[in-house]
Amino acid sequence: MDITSRCTLGDPNKLPEGVPQPARMPYVSDKHPRQTLEVISLLRKHRELCDVVLVVGAKKIYAHRVILSACSPYFRAMFTGELAESRQTEVVIRDIDERAMELLIDFAYTSQVTVEEGNVQTLLPAACLLQLAEIQEACCEFLKRQLDPSNCLGIRAFADTHSCRELLRIADKFTQHNFQEVMESEEFMLLPANQLIDIISSDELNVRSEEQVFNAVMAWVKYSIQERRPQLPQVLQHVRLPLLSPKFLVGTVGSDPLIKSDEECRDLVDEAKNYLLLPQERPLMQGPRTRPRKPIRCGEVLFAVGGWCSGDAISSVERYDPQTNEWRMVASMSKRRCGVGVSVLDDLLYAVGGHDGSSYLNSVERYDPKTNQWSSDVAPTSTCRTSVGVAVLGGYLYAVGGQDGVSCLNIVERYDPKENKWTRVASMSTRRLGVAVAVLGGFLYAVGGSDGTSPLNTVERYNPQENRWHTVAPMGTRRKHLGCAVYQDMIYSVGGRDDTTELSSAERYNPRTNQWSPVVAMTSRRSGVGLAVVNGQLMAVGGFDGTTYLKTIEVYDPDANTWRYVHFFFFFQRK
């Protein structure tokens, strides 16, 4: 039958009453975009149907105008407007790196590009020129992950040059929060005066005292004294001299030859002296130089997570708030975990592995302090681990060593929170359980532990750029289940256990000299101790003294080289 006999004038989609509607099935192909892109990419590879050649330096890149125009507003304007290039078959592109252009044209055809340390500095400017916002964002995300005290100023300047506002904001915050390490870097010494002023003018600069700011400024001036000496008065205006101690102001600042020889600098010192000597006049002297800094501190809440108490693994978690000087219970983990590794990544607390009293664990939980909830949707580690070291470096969470119930491990893997995936990296040279880990200067340190037979004093550090471990100076004492933290640019190792007993001794590592030196011993012996820096104070938390699981806390005073008990305790005795 001829189906056209049923058609009527009017709505072509409407059939006469009583006539059954034909069956319909809309179809959308999921394969079509990918397959089309693959064919077009193949055409370019064979130089078929190409209608433009991009000349970049000595390189000629064959392409299709429609593909370039679809991906890049820059090319769309070039090929659809009245520009001469719209009529040319060969188009010269200037001020762009050859390899970067190749990568971006490949991206237009494949939707894939690999951003890495070797190409990001040419890829980002090229993406900016071609207005490829997606690649700009990928480059900025890569650079965020690379932020370190040694490179944050360079990344900040790079972001500023290429108008990457979000990266610039994050680099600024990173610089302010890590100023005590940044001020030691080569990049800091090479700063122009205006950028130095921008940094030290911030109310959010994270320093223990204004003395650090003054010392940083003077080190910067003396790095190139002939050039920078005339700039000292301008820079010193942004150091909050009235906030210095009288002893430091008079004995150090006022007696410095560079300060004494400049009238403007002397005036600033006199202003600070008046502020300190005339408290009744202070309300009339308020200004930017008298305003206390209020750094936005990260990680200033201390958590005690899991552990071993009264002969069993526990799941409880407690939080210490330095504002109220109180411990409070928060949500417990879903599993009991002793020997658990913990660290903070992107303001979320991760608990990795451990032992629940009967089984070795490879599961990972993540705590959000804003919601007071733990989630278990984190990918597990590749192997079960207890007595594992966990730390954060370059935006990744590293799990180091431990034991799986069969053997002691030298395996190291890292977690990418964006991919929710663990990836193996280079293994340590030594198997280590009960190892302590710390991050300093862009390196991941694995300190002490046990090889499954004996406690270790050896130390090695991981270079993520090389994906290699290197041995550094050993500790003076063999220690397993020790506490480890970075404090005042040194790695402190405290407590733990040697072959025979729990330890109260402590020592610290200076990466500049590659040497360990002894520190005064803690008041209590502590194996399985937690060590952390809170509000600029080094705290040793809990542990086992050979008889009792402790719930006491000691704080180290670097000036007096003493440990003292603090007046707060947490609910559970923990190891």
Report a brief summary of the structure.
The chain has 575 residues and is an alpha+beta fold. The protein is globular and about 90 Å long.
Please tell me what the overall shape is: globular
Could you give me the name of the CATH homologous superfamily of the largest domain? Kelch-type beta propeller
What number is the mean pLDDT? 90
Number of strands: 28
Strand order within the widest beta sheet = 9-10-11-12
CATH class of the largest domain: Mainly Beta
Look at the helices and sheets and give the structural class: alpha+beta
* Total number of helices: 17
Q: How large, in whole angstroms, is the Cα Rg? A: 31 Å
Poorly predicted regions? 1-9
- β content, as a range? 15-25%
Considering DSSP H and I runs of 4 or more, what fraction of the residues is helical? 25-40%
Query: How many domain regions?
Result: 3
CATH architecture of the largest domain: 6 Propeller
CATH fold field value of the largest domain: Neuraminidase
Major sheet: 4 strands, antiparallel
Task: Give the termini distance in whole angstroms.
Answer: 87 Å
Descriptive labels:
single chain, 575 residues, alpha+beta, Potassium Channel Kv1.1, Chain A, Serine Threonine Protein Phosphatase 5, Tetratricopeptide repeat, Neuraminidase, 3 domains, 4-stranded antiparallel β-sheet, 27% helix
